[in-house]
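Quick one, tokens below. Sequence please?
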């Protein structure tokens, strides 16, 4: 059974940093595409960053480019989301997701519907 466990959320002031971790188990990690999504109250779930663990390709939504960085630790089946220069509008529940996605898919075309495995979420709150 696939399991994803997030950690690292919290409360910070605008301009601060947080690093989220997603520990994966129950499948062949190296064959998966993994992503970070976020959902603020009253808003739809939004894809923030994706990484293809097979070749290291990454994708970022425009609003976080240059501030967030997704990375992987294949030895420990863990994906990270380093979040710098945080803004109040980054406040949301952040979810880790994974699935086996064809390598021919452009990461920028992915959405939440492409991911079948989800973590429980970790809250990020940024105050002004």
């Amino acid at each position: 059974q696939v399991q994803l466990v997030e950690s690292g959320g919290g409360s910070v002031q605008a301009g601060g940093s947080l690093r989220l971790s997603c520990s994966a188990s129950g499948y062949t990690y190296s064959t998966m595409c993994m992503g970070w999504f976020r959902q603020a109250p009253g808003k739809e779930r939004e894809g923030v960053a994706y990484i293809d663990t097979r070749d290291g390709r990454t994708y970022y939504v425009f609003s976080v480019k240059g501030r967030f960085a997704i990375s992987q630790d294949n030895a420990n089946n863990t994906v990270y989301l380093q979040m710098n220069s945080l803004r109040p509008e980054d406040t949301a529940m952040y979810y880790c997701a994974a699935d086996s996605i064809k390598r021919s898919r452009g990461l920028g075309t992915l959405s939440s519907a492409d991911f079948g495995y989800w973590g429980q979420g970790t809250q990020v709150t940024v105050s002004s």
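The first strand starts at residue 3 and ends at 7. The mean pLDDT is 94.
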